[in-house]
Design brief:
Helices cover 49% and strands 16% of the residues. The strands form two sheets. It has a six-stranded mixed sheet with strand order 1-2-3-5-7-10, with helices on both faces. Strands 4-6-8-9 form a four-stranded mixed sheet.
Length: 265
Amino acid sequence: MSTDTPVTLEISGGVARLTLNRPDKRNALDSATIAALSAALDRCADDPNVRMLQLTGAGNVFCAGADLGEMQAQVQASESENLAHAKKLASVLGALDSMRKPTVARVNGDGYGGALGLIAACDIVIAAEGAKFAFTEVRLGIIPAVVSPFVLGKISESAALRYFLTAETMSAATLKEMGLVHEVVPAEALDAACNRISDAVLKGAPGALSEAKALIRDAAHRSAEGRANASIRMAARLAKLRVKPEAQEGFNAFFGKRKPNWRPD
């Protein structure tokens, strides 16, 4: 697959397949990728030929989360610049979460940080066995702020307390237990599982599918608009942390391949 564009879009049989296309960077979410994903989501929302969306990653990684090189540069930026940067991801997650058409995450490999926001913002999630996940932010001196409204819409407060604070590595099976993943399959069976889900969804009437999504949100008292607004508000918390000495130490330690000064010897 060409890496000339950070997100590819293929539409066939009513299914729009969006692929994060930076395999050499583990499909990390830099500004160009976020902008391309936003544009692709807008196009799919308005295209009558698109009945549903499938989101995946090129290569053997789903998404490494935020582009750490770009985030390292943001440590030196002002708080207002950091806020503008964080709001870009918040807007994409909000658009994915509020999409009236059904969405499926084809999680083909590892996912960290912001990737878990993408997973949480999708309606149905199929993950490959062996994939690993983590909310790694606290180890860099920041927090999983922007993804939190979407993740907490799917997992318990108890689970968030453990994994936001420990940054432990989680398996696909753990994510299924938490409610972030619906089905875990061998990697070689991933396409068959996603096709099975797509076939089932496409048997539903387009209008009824949209109304079913709205019904669930209303009945569960969790509005997509509320999550999107909360994510933007949480972006302000992240922006404040990015400019603090702790975050600067976290990123400098990461790129310097050393322990940050809060880690015990």
